[in-house]
């Protein structure tokens, strides 16, 4: 559940922290005080589009941070592990947006993408409002709601998908073989690819070695000149080479050794230098003799480099070629044995298709059975919510022809489901999306939530003025229903009804005031007396009205009595 919501620079809220608790948390306030700001802030931190118009006037950025204590929610744990986010004592979701439209999302301090954030919070909070019932109005979701109500359906659905997916896989592989002429063309293409790669047979590092050789050939004249000049410097003609000059130095020093033998060491060192120089000169001579420039050899190197690069361009890096060849050989083998393989796949397709059809039929029968109970539960709740003449049906459409089952099936089986409703006596059933009254839509959604609350694995439900269009006794019933839902889930409800406000376990007042030329919205938790005063205001009573206070106290006592009866 949400334990706190920190809002900074969103619309009229400068900086404020709301602390929420278990049970039914009700937020109320005068029109324009900023009730929608709370929901907008919550929607923003939960992944809605960043609307920079929400940023408080005069500020460059806005921040919302929500803290949850849902660390034991298995779905939340799975998502955190999937994205590599560390689990902590609390789950902290923080989102910031700036004037330039940039948005930063973080979970437990770790940056996440918007899609990752939405995947996580889908298991944390479910928001419902008068204008945000698109998920419920989307008929594609109706089958999911019905299946969640009937838990026995989920097991059958899993078994159906095992066989249906095997059927689809076999069908896909059969289709991949195409017709015989197409297979022949494909075989020719694969054989050409294999032959081309094996003919060139490039080796790892070969291209680099060839480039080195090419550079050597392209610079052979320069290399030859350098070696010759170096050799001449060592052993040149006319006694000007370094070897001859070294020999002269040795001879001159040896001539004076009889006068002073201390120069003998210098003579020995020069002898060593002369030997090393002679060795270098000989090696240079050998290299010069070995030098050769064959234009055809350079041409062959260029051709080889071009071949290797063509292979790389067509089939990938040299390192990837073995894997590519293996795949190509395998595909070629399958194509050459296509007729036998197709026979095997056809058999699998038939067997798995028949099993999938069997489970699709079982799924249909189970859904029909579950739908009866679901229909009765919906009608019962709607009658309690004042829609006494309402009829409801989860319509299940199934192919009349058994042969059409597989062609119309998806991961949910071959059924399609849509919710039909008639709010008034004598009117035909119509799709839920055709309901004109917002109040009727709100009550239907609340009745559905009252049924499915135990099935949902989401700990926090948010209702934003879903009581629009209702009043009086029905408003009391709506309050009771929300209280029932909040027994096992945290509920946040924004309301303008005194009946619902009186049912609050925790009542928050949203106020607006002016300070230093600015308008500021804040939210405060009311004590018992403050809650009574707010119920009076919602009921239209003056703050000093004794009758109004008595009426408010009567509502509060009625709410306490109802909640005590449910303990």
Describe this entry's structure for a reader.
- This protein is of the alpha/beta class.
- It has a domain at 1-124 and 458-567: Rossmann fold.
- It is 55% helix and 17% strand.
- The chain contains 20 helices and 15 strands.
- The protein has helices at residues 35-45, 74-82, 114-121, 134-137, 142-149, 151-177, 180-200, 206-218, 220-235, 242-255, 264-290, 295-315, 321-336, 338-384, 405-408, 438-452, 472-485, 498-502, 528-538, 546-565, and strands at 2-10, 13-19, 24-29, 61-68, 91-98, 103-107, 110-112, 125-129, 391-397, 416-422, 430-431, 460-464, 490-494, 506-515, 518-525.
- Strands 2-1-4-5-6-7 form a 6-stranded antiparallel beta sheet. A 6-stranded mixed beta sheet has the order 8-12-13-3-14-15, sandwiched between helices.
- The longest helix is centred in the middle third of the chain and has 47 residues, at 338-384.
Summarize this structure briefly:
The protein has 567 residues and is α/β, with parallel strands linked by helices. It is built from 20 helices and 15 strands. Helix 7 packs antiparallel against helix 13 and helix 9 packs antiparallel against helix 11 (264-290).
Residue share in helices?
40-55%
Can you tell me the CATH topology of the domain at 1-124 and 458-567? Rossmann fold
Number of helices: 20
The CATH class assignment of the domain at 1-124 and 458-567 is Alpha Beta
Distance between the termini: 21 Å
The poorly predicted ranges are: none
The CATH H-level superfamily of the domain at 1-124 and 458-567 is P-loop containing nucleotide triphosphate hydrolases
CATH architecture of the domain at 1-124 and 458-567: 3-Layer(aba) Sandwich
Q: Please report the total strand number as a whole number.
A: 15
Radius of gyration: 42 Å
Structural class: alpha/beta
The fraction of residues assigned to DSSP E strands is: 15-25%
What characteristic shape results from the CA principal axes? elongated
Q: Write out the strand line-up for the largest beta sheet, numbering strands in chain order.
A: 2-1-4-5-6-7
| Major pleated sheet | 6 strands, antiparallel
Average pLDDT score: 87
């Amino acid at each position: 559940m949400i334990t706190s919501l920190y809002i900074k620079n969103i619309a009229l809220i400068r900086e404020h922290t709301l602390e929420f608790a278990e049970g039914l948390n009700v937020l109320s306030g005068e029109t324009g005080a900023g009730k929608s700001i709370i929901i907008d802030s919550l929607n923003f931190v939960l992944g809605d589009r960043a609307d920079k118009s929400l940023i408080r006037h005069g500020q460059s950025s806005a921040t919302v941070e929500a803290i949850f204590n849902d660390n034991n929610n298995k779905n939340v744990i799975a998502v955190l592990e999937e994205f590599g986010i560390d689990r902590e004592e609390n789950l902290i979701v923080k989102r910031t947006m700036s004037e330039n439209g940039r948005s930063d999302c973080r979970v437990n301090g770790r940056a996440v993408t918007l899609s990752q954030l939405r995947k996580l919070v889908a298991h944390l909070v479910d928001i419902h409002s008068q204008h945000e019932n698109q998920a419920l109005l989307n008929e594609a979701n109706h089958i999911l709601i019905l299946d969640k109500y009937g838990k026995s359906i989920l097991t059958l659905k899993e078994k159906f998908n095992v066989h249906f997916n095997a059927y689809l896989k076999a069908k896909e592989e059969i289709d991949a073989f195409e017709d015989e002429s197409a297979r022949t063309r494909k075989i020719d293409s694969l054989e050409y690819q294999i032959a081309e790669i094996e003919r060139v047979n490039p080796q790892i590092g070969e291209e680099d070695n060839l480039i080195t050789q090419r550079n050597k050939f392209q610079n052979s004249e320069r290399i030859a000149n350098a070696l010759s000049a170096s050799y001449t410097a060592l052993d040149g003609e006319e006694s000007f080479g370094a070897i001859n000059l070294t020999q002269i130095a040795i001879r001159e020093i040896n001539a004076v050794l009889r006068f002073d033998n201390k120069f003998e060491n210098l003579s020995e060192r020069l002898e060593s230098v002369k030997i090393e120089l002679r060795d270098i000169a000989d090696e240079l001579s050998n290299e010069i003799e070995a030098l050769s420039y064959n234009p055809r050899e350079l041409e062959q190197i260029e051709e080889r480099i071009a071949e290797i690069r063509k292979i790389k361009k067509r089939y990938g890096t040299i390192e990837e070629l073995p894997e590519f060849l293996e795949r190509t050989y395998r595909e070629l083998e399958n194509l050459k044995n296509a007729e036998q393989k197709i026979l095997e796949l056809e058999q699998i397709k038939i067997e798995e298709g028949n099993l999938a059809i069997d489970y699709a039929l079982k799924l249909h029968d189970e859904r029909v059975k579950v739908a009866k109970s679901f229909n009765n539960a919906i009608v019962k709740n709607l009658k309690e919510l004042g829609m006494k003449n309402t009829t409801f049906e989860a319509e299940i459409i199934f192919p009349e022809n058994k042969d059409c089952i597989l062609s119309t099936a998806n991961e949910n089986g071959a059924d399609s489901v849509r919710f039909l409703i008639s709010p008034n006596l004598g009117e035909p059933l119509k799709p839920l999306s055709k309901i004109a009254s917002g109040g009727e839509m709100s009550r239907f959604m609340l009745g559905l939530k009252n049924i499915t609350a135990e099935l949902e694995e989401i700990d926090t439900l948010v209702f934003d003025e879903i009581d629009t269009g209702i009043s009086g006794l029905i408003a009391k019933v709506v309050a009771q229903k929300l209280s029932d839902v909040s027994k096992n889930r945290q509920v946040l409800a924004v309301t303008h009804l005194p009946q619902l406000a009186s049912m609050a376990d925790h009542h928050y007042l949203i106020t607006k005031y002016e300070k230093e030329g600015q308008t500021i919205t804040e939210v405060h938790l009311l004590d018992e007396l403050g809650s009574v005063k707010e119920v009076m205001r919602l009921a239209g009573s003056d703050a000093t009205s004794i009758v109004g206070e008595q009426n408010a106290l009567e509502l509060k006592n009625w709410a306490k009595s109802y909640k005590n009866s449910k303990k």
